[in-house]
Amino acid sequence: MFVVNDHHTYKQLTAITSPGNVLVDEALYNHTYTRLGGKADFYVTPETYEQVQAIVKLSMKEKIPFTLLGNGSNLIVKDGGIRGIVLNPGRLADIRREGMRIVAQSGARIIDTSQFALSHSLTGLEFSCGIPGSVGGALFMNAGAYGGEVKDVLESAIVVDRNGDLLTLSADDLDLEYRSSNIPDKGYIVLEATFRMKEGQYEAIKAVMDDLTYKRESKQPLEYPSCGSVFKRPPGYFAGKLIQDSDLQGEQIGGAQVSLKHAGFIINLERASATEYIRLIHFVQDTVKEKFGVTLEREVKIIGEDPG
């Protein structure tokens, strides 16, 4: 049985990476876009692929619960927090060009990757210029916006599997579909992604990105913490329109509110708890189901433990 804050585990983790990369009892609301989430027993930010492998192997050997956490842009962590090791690859954030390809480590922001492509006049990643997640998170859920998705440009990825082994996989190996992949089912940790690009004109690429940025900033409630788009698009409908037509905009539970600016967003208006945020998600789902007979499927992931 894993013991919370076990000193032996701390010593093992700091033998793998520096003590500054291992935080004990770290509040996860400091690391999620929603500003929600209880504490992690160990919050670890490795600096090399070898350290990631060693941490995965340690968790297996010692039977320590293990959770991967990107930058938490499409994620809700419950108020009870997460037991065991929470690994964040945020220190793995290098982006480089290799001919007509861009190679980005998983902790890099996908927005920064699109800006890097622009700086090299490479086209293909414009759609991602406003997606707030990391590269690893973008592969995890095949992130997309404005008609583009990761699947369109991804060539390959380097991952660590559940055994701590390093694998190089093609995009086809990841079963990328609408807002999904096999990465969670396989237990892969993405370390880097290679995107296949095309030559473009700097001004044309910038014009597209500026237009998409304007659309996003004018329509989305970016001034508040949120998990982004809460629900997947149901076949034949738009989630935001269904929520709006259900008269749910402005609906509030505790500090969580259905955005008045975009009905598909739930914002953390006033220091909401994860419990309040999740209750509001369920209320929206129940109301839309009752009014229109449509089941809204969550796009956002919910992890962690309920408060004790």
UniProtKB/TrEMBL annotation:
Keywords: Cell cycle, Cell division, Cell shape, Cell wall biogenesis/degradation, Cytoplasm, FAD, Flavoprotein, NADP, Oxidoreductase, Peptidoglycan synthesis. SUPFAM superfamilies: FAD-binding/transporter-associated domain-like, Uridine diphospho-N-Acetylenolpyruvylglucosamine reductase, MurB, C-terminal domain. It catalyses: UDP-N-acetyl-alpha-D-muramate + NADP(+) = UDP-N-acetyl-3-O-(1-carboxyvinyl)-alpha-D-glucosamine + NADPH + H(+). The active site is at residues 179, 229, 299. Its cofactor is FAD. InterPro entries: FAD-bd_PCMH, FAD-bd_PCMH-like_sf, FAD-bd_PCMH_sub1, FAD-bd_PCMH_sub2, MurB, MurB_C, MurB_C_sf, Oxid_FAD_bind_N. Its EC number is 1.3.1.98. Residues 36-215 form the FAD-binding PCMH-type domain. Pathway: Cell wall biogenesis; peptidoglycan biosynthesis. NCBIfam families: murB, PRK13905.1. Belongs to the MurB family. PANTHER family: UDP-N-ACETYLENOLPYRUVOYLGLUCOSAMINE REDUCTASE. Cell wall formation. This is UDP-N-acetylenolpyruvoylglucosamine reductase. It comes from Lentibacillus salinarum. The gene is murB.
